[in-house]
Amino acid sequence: MNDVLKLLSEGERLSTDQMAELLNLSTAEVEAELKRLESENILLGWRPVLNPEASQDNVVRAVIEVKISPEREGGFDKLALRISRFDEVESCYLMSGGYDLLLVCSGSTLRQVASFVSERLATIEGVLSTTTHFLLRAYKEQNYLLVNSLDVNDKPSVSP
User: Are 57 and 107 spatial neighbours (Cβ–Cβ below 8 Å)?
Assistant: First the structure.
């Protein structure tokens, strides 16, 4: 991994001037590298890491395991790309093991996510089955701990 990409992936919000200073490069060199990373589809965007409990964002998230039948001409890719285009789908991964695709989906309510799965996802030709797991609490997101270790009691309570 190159130095500019490493700085970006570590999550610090730095200006190009700050990156240049840290890497002993000129601002123009850093800007050129950022443009190259974007043009080669390595750097796709910029997103902050949010703590869902602290931001009080009433979003319901689910992890969905999907078994699919690969298509003759497109294998898994064609169906995976079709599923990825739904607004509810945040991430879609081809997996090995007991299922084929792993989806991370979101909606404003549990009913909205459930409706998406039952009415839109499961009805697609080639989708053999789905298993939905609703996320209850996040402890770590993109290498950031979301729960203060002092808030967690590691010792079990003693009953008389």
Answer: no
Q: What is the CATH number of domain 52-136?
A: 3.30.70.920
Q: How many CA atoms lie within 13 A of 135 on its CB side?
A: 20
- pLDDT, tens digit, 9 for 90 and up, residues 101-160: 999 999 999 999 999 999 999 999 999 999 999 999 888 888 788 887 655 555 666 766
Beta bridge partners of 65: 102, 131
- H or E element at residue 154: none
Structural domain spans, the chain: 3-39, 52-136
Instruction: For tokens 């270790």, name the residue.
Output: 149
Between the alpha carbon of residue 27 and those of residues 30, 41, 112, 115, the distances in Å are: 5, 21, 46, 49
- Within 10 angstroms of residue 136's Cβ, the number of other Cβ atoms is 6
CA neighbor of 101 nearest in space, from 74, 73, 81: 81
| Distance (Å, whole) CA 83 – CA 8 | 29
